[in-house]
Amino acid sequence: MDSKVVLKEKNPHDKANILSKILLCWSLPLFKRGYKQGLTVDDLFQARSGDHSGRLGDRLEEAWLREKEKCKNTKDRPSLTKAILSCFWVEYMMCGLLVGLLFIVLWPMIPYSLALFIEYFAGERTPETYRNAHIYNFILNFLTITTALMFNHVALSQGCVGMRVRIAACSILYRKILRLNRIGLSKTEPGQVINLMSNDVNRFDQAALYLHYIWMMPFVVPVVSYLVWQHIGYATLAALAVVAVQSVLVQAYLSKRQGALRGKIARRTDQRVKVMSELVNGVQVIKMYAWEKPFEKLVDKLRKWEVKFILRTSYIKGFSVALSVFTERFILFAAVVTFVCLGGGIRAGITFSLVQYYNLIQLACNIFFPLALAMAAESRVSIRRLEDFLLLEELDKEEIKMVGIAPNISNGTEKDNANSKFKPSTLVLSNLSASWQPNPIVHTLRNISLTAHPGEFVGVAGLVGSGKSTLLQVILGELPPAQGTINIGGARIAYASQEPWLFVASVKQNILFGLPYDKLRYKKVRLSDVSLCF
């Protein structure tokens, strides 16, 4: 409970100068420390002010509540994607502008400058061409260094945006867990929550690195094709045909299949984690009845189903990567052969510039573009799963207040404090009905009436499944009543669950439960505990 890691060292990025930020020199001490002695938790830096989970969670939760309020009147399904975009679109748009500047403007100029520089050695050398060669050489080196620095900064910026989205999503998931009522809890499992917070949210980290290449590809291909046209003319069309077949048709289909398999993998993983959680909780019963072998076969079967779809996804990813590796060679071969067949002459300037052009095509269209499509498909599946969880029933804020200040409840919504004719601490239930299902055939509780006065000891007896725990959940406000009224008056309710639970900590830490140490109060708790034992 007190295992929180306190990071003492401030983030070096905040105090770095402009040159250090451009060259990323502020990170060198960390690499040096890791090279000498290895990194530990104490070597981590404090998070920057804009990266704290509380602040990010507040931003996304506010946007999500606005989205839910907007869709309440239209009956549409709230979109978590719109909520995320409304929070992070500005910073991610800036990353997109840098990506466009890098791949559409700066990077295509490198092979163009390279061709002009090489032509100096193949043509007539004069003082004017000598001066131009130095200019082309300077431009070539400047563009190479600039694109290298910009590419790393763009990747870092996109990774930071993805990290913030992931942290914000984890924050609102945690807050949602604390607000779930019993109906919402019955529709989910601990294994599903673990899968959401460990696997699904990680898609944001990966998707943020590549999504901009989806809109960028239609701009990169025409720009590069126009520059290639200046060198080889109609032979450019042969290269475009190869790009269209590999990038648009094959890779798009593979990405679609990968996204579909991602949804199946997530469902199989949820099922396996759910079964494993139930097995761990019931391991004593399993050992007592010697059920190890049947349950071992069950877990093995579930794992094989999961691995089967993971293997299919791995095969698709492997084929996509292998296809991307040979793209540059296919395009270059098609362009050069077509150019020669049309009567063109191969020169060093043309050949080396074509290699650079098609290397850019391969990087943007056959590596990043397929990854972007795959990550978009997987992220869409993950967002859908997150939306399903965030839309589960939760405790109504008014009902939570009612448990504390205890006004009247009528069908879970109506309050009447002024006309209350009961004593402040009297608990009164009148014709109360409640159920775990939205529209049940038969309610779990039917027409329950109860009056409990201060100082009375009331016991509720019944068979297993008769609704004793359901009655307590209704009184606590965690299960909304279908009909009837509840009057809690001014009573303050304490609930002790029949299922004991402890944190992995000392006895003292479990008693304090995160509160500051009060010696007198702690002693009273210990004495009351001893009195219960004797």
Automatic annotation (TrEMBL):
Q: Which residues cross the membrane?
A: 83-110, 135-156, 207-228, 234-254, 356-377
Q: Give one Pfam family, short name only.
A: ABC_membrane
Q: Which UniProt keywords apply?
A: ATP-binding, Membrane, Nucleotide-binding, Transmembrane, Transmembrane helix, Transport
- Cite the ABC transmembrane type-1 domain residue spans from the record: 96-377
Q: Which GO terms describe its cellular component?
A: membrane
- Which molecular function terms from Gene Ontology are attached? ABC-type transporter activity; ATP binding; ATP hydrolysis activity
Q: Which InterPro entries match?
A: ABC1_TM_dom, ABC1_TM_sf, ABC_transporter-like_ATP-bd, ABC_transporter_C-like, P-loop_NTPase
Q: What SUPFAM superfamilies does this protein's entry cite?
A: ABC transporter transmembrane region, P-loop containing nucleoside triphosphate hydrolases
What is the protein's name according to its record?
ABC transmembrane type-1 domain-containing protein
Per the UniProt entry, what species is this protein from, by scientific name? Euphydryas editha (Edith's checkerspot)
